[in-house]
Known about the structure:
Blueprint lengths: L3 E12 L2 E13 L4 E5 L6 H9 L6 E10 L2 E2 L5 H10 L1 E4 L3 H4 L6 H12 L4 H14 L5 H5 L8 H13 L5 E5 L7 H18 L2 E6 L2 H5 L4 E6 L2 E7 H6 L4 H8 L39 H5 L5 E2 L5 E2 L2 H21 L4 H21 L5 H22 L13 H12 L20
Parallel strand pairs: 3-8, 3-9, 6-7, 7-8
Antiparallel strand pairs: 1-2, 1-4, 4-5, 9-10, 10-12, 11-12
This protein binds adenosine-5'-diphosphate, iron/sulfur cluster (SF4) and magnesium ion.
Amino acid sequence: MALLEVRDLHTSFFTDAGEVKAVNGVSFDLDRGKVLGIVGESGSGKSVTVYSIMQILAPAGRIVSGSIKFDGQELVGAGEKVMRDIRGNKISIIFQDPMTSLNPTYTIGHQLMEAILLHTDRNKEQAWDRAVEMLRLVNVNEPEKRMKQYPHEFSGGMRQRVMIAMALACEPDILIADEPTTALDVTIQAQILELMQQLQRELGMAIIMITHDLGVVAQMCDEIVVMYAGSYCERGTADEIFYDPRHEYTKGLLRSIPTMGTMGQKLQPITGTPIDLLNLPKGCPFAPRCDAAMKICIRQAAENMDLSETHKASCWINVKQKARNIGASAMQKAQKVGMDYDDAADIATAIEAGGLGASVLSAEVHSAQAEEELEAARKRAAKEVQEESAGNLSDGDIVGDGALIHSREMGNRSASAPNPTVHGKKPRKGGKR
Length: 433
Ligand SMILES: Nc1ncnc2c1ncn2[C@@H]1O[C@H](COP(=O)(O)OP(=O)(O)O)[C@@H](O)[C@H]1O
Ligand code: SF4
Ligand SMILES: [Mg+2]
């Protein structure tokens, strides 16, 4: 069981203009001691996701459905008493702008001690010592002197260190950092990130790191959730996201950050504007901005497809690729049993269209289902070929022929699939189709 399990979370704001679906179907796990990055452009629902976890939403906001489990305990609908214990004691949050979270009229020491007294059973003297210790931990020089100063006497970076100290004072299991470095300049940003990494190593807590910048999470995170229009379009280990991105939005984000490989090249920002959350489209929300968009992308959103045990993405290109792989392997098998090239290519094309067609036609757009359909078609065809060829072939070899029948069956159905790719097939005069 993961320390934090978020499942199909939906959070909306009920405004005069209508229901703003800020979070629509976010799921992820966070294990003890791990760092999870939530990445996405401004307005993609990152903050609302974590505010939902903490249940600190603006009055118009409400968790509409889904589950959030902390250490096995359901937090959705748990009530304020449970949440008060969770907030501060179990899960702490630091915000983007430390100035709005610090009270300008009290000293830093007073505010740190207040947090410690509220969340632990230390007395005043112990709280003072703990506050000094925390300031030292976050690398604030002369902590005793700093305790007596006011927020305006601290620089932006120093204030963010104080906020981290405050969030850590009660030794939370999870620290949520909501764009903690956005308001800071680049060198200070690097220092704060380094500090968070150091603290994570020393204290072993789990961290949710929110940022609009993939570069920030590159070195820090074990897993990454990429958010777009309130959903996650891709999630996976840092390696999977960085070395094998499988959603066009993630690919766009990666193209827009500088790397050693892109040195000297112009970075490519993602053009276009984010989607209107009041009127979510029925297709892929990224389609209007996606260079690779196909017709199907506009008609229907691709479901999240498992690419590995840890990697998921919702992009039609993956469904297409999977259908193509199945088609290619069918083609190989068809040729192996002596079928001529054109017929084999017909099969591959039909299977590919079938893979997509099946997904398009069914409400559940899942390639597992497409595969099931293909498997059934293969079996039917195997039977037919066996009858025709008087059983000279083994079952495994004739898999490809299945598509002959399947291709006839698919004649109508594949009309709804986006142009299936013919496997290197030359145009031929008068075919079977
Ligand atoms: N208090 C609110 N009232 C209405 N809509 C809101 C409110 N807060 C957030 N939203 C909506 O939720 C979307 C996601 O916001 P947010 O999670 O803050 O984005 P970000 O990814 O930048 O953190 C916003 O684009 C906005 O449409
Ligand atoms: S599903 Fe289509 S529009 Fe969406 S990212 Fe993939 S290719 Fe682009
Ligand atoms: Mg935010």
